[in-house]
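Hi team,

As requested, here is the filled-out complex form for the WTA run. I kept the field names the same as last time so the parser does not choke. Let me know if anything looks off before we queue the next batch.

— J.
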Amino acid sequence: MSSTTNSDQMQSALQESRKFPPPAALAAEAHVGSPEAYEKLYKESIEDPEGFWAGAAKEMHWFKPWDKVLEWNCPDAKWFVGGQTNLSYNCLDRQVEAGLGDQTAIIWESEAVDAKGKPTVLNLTYSDLLSKVSKFANALKKLGVKKGDVVTIYLPMIPELAIAMLACARIGAPHSIIFGGFSAQAICDRVNNCESRFLVTADGGWRRGKSVPLKKNADGGMELTDRIETCVVVKHAQIDIPMKDGRDIWYHDVVTDASDVCPAEPMDSEDLAFILYTSGSTGKPKGIMHTTGGYMVYTYLTSKISFDLHPGDVYWCTADIGWITGHSYIIYGILPNRVPSIMYEGGPNHPGNDRFWDIIERHKVTKFYTAPTAIRTFMKWGDAEVEKHDLSSLKLLGTVGEPINPEAWMWYREKIGGGRCPVVDTWWQTETGGHMLVPKPGATTTTPGSCTTPFFGIDIAVVNSDGEEVPTNTGGILVIRKPWPAMLRGVFGDRERYIDTYWSKVKGMYTAGDGARKDEDGNFWIMGRIDDVIIVAGHNIGTMEVESGLVSHPAVAEAAVVGYPHDIKGNGIAAFVILRGDIPVGEEAEKLKAELAKHVAKELGPISKPDVIKLTDALPKTRSGKIMRRLLRDIAAGVEIKGDITTLEDKSIVEKLQKR
Ligand code: WTA
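And here is what came back:
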């Protein structure tokens, strides 16, 4: 995200005064039904987090109760220590045992429609799902998968994806799910990183009327690494694929004779539940680790409260299960809440641009969760697509993934929600496991563009690099000051990276890597990734803005701006500038630098004036043409270049820049 957008958002945010209190009917029935109820419970949850989380955990099944709610040794948290539970059990068995086996757990819909335009829909009850999960769990065991073995899953959005992850959870094999859009190289890197010996994939999936050749990519991945010993293949897209003898085996063959009884393995609360890779700024994938008990309780409770789930709801999250949103808010948090969760395989524009609205109308969706980028696309496609459908079943709308601009927020509320549904803007990360900043739909007055206030037990603040809270409406670093149950437990195989990335910027606090401000009502406004924002003397300076300021000078062809540690201002601004003509030397160079600094000060204000300008004839870029800012940051700080530079196109540039 660019910092130009950040500052735009800050401006529009400052001008934003529209406020929407919770709808009275929803508030009357809500789990948290008034601002006072939220304030009271929030206060309790902060003063006594252990008591609060123990209460939440008791809503779930434990094979063995915990001895201790929390063990905190910064940056290592252990939740529900000594307790034993199972994610798959809490998603499935518990509902069946409560006599709800015949209720729908997952509604799966495929993009494909028949000649009459009728889509393929499959309703899976808790009993159906339990039996399918148990069969596949037994099959995995027979194939040699043991507790603790990492199973890589590379599947489209088909029921077998939900089945495979729940089967892994059932037998205590952590899964590593790779989004179906990733390439052979990405599969290989991830398989190597977590030393996974098992892969579950499919012949292909469907996207916008075409099949996507998943097995072909998986084969490519398996050619690049020889770690995979067994590859289970789901037949789904009916594509002809080669099956390698001794390694590849059909899903339907392994489940046919498998028993549909497979007791869930009691897992220690802190046993690894899954690894999910995020790309991170160095390009090397980071395996984010989540464990069992804390993640389970947190995703359950956030699902219940953020979406205000009740019997009778039909819930649809449009994310892919390959992302954390799908892990937490299609499967693990939703199934224990006993509301049907829709899984849709395909694009939003097949066969027409109204496919999503058609799905909402047919299934009478009540709670809908999607991303701002999708909302902006729908706006572009026009209101007529929406108006073809009756969306009156909707009661709540959620968003996630990036800051939502007020225009999109208003459109979502008015056009999709008919002006009657609260918009729940959820801020969180793969690392946080679940919602952190989120409106409580029956209690929170919302404002377009703000993700409002913290979830229970979340001690979150906007601080400077010393960890002191910055004044109201001042941008700063978003940190979490106390552990929470679903927090990541580390980066797989890379302790240093865990500490470096999340725990070294502000002492004793988790830094999310996002910039934010808090307004006079206590609402938080996310301003994008910190990497794109420099906080100078408590002011947020967007790097993109300073770059545009420099480029608007006739002598400048290109510029890259980064922050570096500065004794007085916290951060200083360093600009690397490529000129249109030759680089002057000596006094001429100094004169030009002074002129450029003055020019920026005039264009953007004195606070944005670069402290250091380096004139150069080239910038370090990746092969795809992206400026490698982290190298520039190291150069500006005068420290040794850390990290991987294998993706750098021309390595000599770095040495040249260091000498300037
Ligand atoms: C951004 C997705 C503003 C943010 C769940 C965060 C958001 C990153 C929001 C995590 C939001 C996510 N408002 N920004 N509601 N939600 N982000 O790991 O920069 O894919 O740090 O997790 O997305 O992305 P991730």
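Two things worth flagging: The longest helix spans residues 586-604. The longest strand covers residues 556-566.

Thanks,
J.
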